[in-house]
Amino acid sequence: MLNIKELLEEIKASPYEEIEISVPHTGLVEFTGLKVGDKVNGPTGEWKEKPGTVLAKLTRERNTKTITASEKGEIVSIRQDLEGQFVEAGEVLIKIRHFLSKEEVIQLILKKALFLFNAPEKAKYYFTPEVDTKIKGSGERSVKVREGLDLFIVSRMKRETALNYSGPEGLIYSVYFHNGDNVDAGQPLIGVCPADQLKQIQEVVNRVQSEWEERD
Asked: Which domain of life is it from (predicted)?
């Protein structure tokens, strides 16, 4: 069984992730004057429609595109040697240290502590009407799942098929999609918590919510 409290201590020891910003296609690189240690912002707005801090510009065939920060954080390295150079797609330009938010820590713990039932193929996914009604009325943790339960409807190429649950018995603790979302193969649909671990997991979540200090 995963030691959740030990995992939390590990996250506290390194409360960040380093994000690599690379070029999406070939082109000539021009940096915007940012330096190591500068703070940057990720996308904002209700739908993340406002792009993050502009980090660099990439020009190909007189067409210039901006490269922006994908997360809020602090610049830890810049490939200044690539200034004015023609680079290949995938070349890493900048690394950003993103300090984890309270919600990100909780989600990180849950994805390791819960049993994740993943999408078997790229398609649109829906809960069955019975399960959907129960979730909307009483929340996802009101739904108990067991091996073979008729849980999802999979829609692909205008065809709908049933998808039964396969995994340990427990309660749906987290839902990682919205009905009708296109979900890539291998991405989690739900996180299931065995009933005997529910109290332990909730205690850790409550601890993070009360103790975790957000960083700018």
From this structure: Bacteria
Residue type, 169: E
Reduced to 3 states, what is the DSSP secondary structure of residue 23?
coil
Domains along the chain?
A: 15-99 (2.40.50.100), 103-211 (2.40.50.100)
Which of 41-45, 176-180, 198-202 is predicted least confidently?
Answer: 198-202
CA distance 129 to 180: 13
Work out the pLDDT band at 11, boundaries 50, 70, 90: confident
Question: How far lies 55's CA from each of 36, 58, 69, 139, 189, in Å?
Answer: 12, 10, 7, 41, 33
Q: Distance (Å, rounded) from C-alpha 95 to C-alpha 74?
A: 9
Closest to 38 (Cα-Cα) out of 94, 101, 104, 100? 94
- Where does the pLDDT of residue 200 fall: very low under 50, low under 70, confident under 90, or very high at 90 and above? confident
Q: How far apart are CA 19 and CA 182, in angstroms?
A: 25
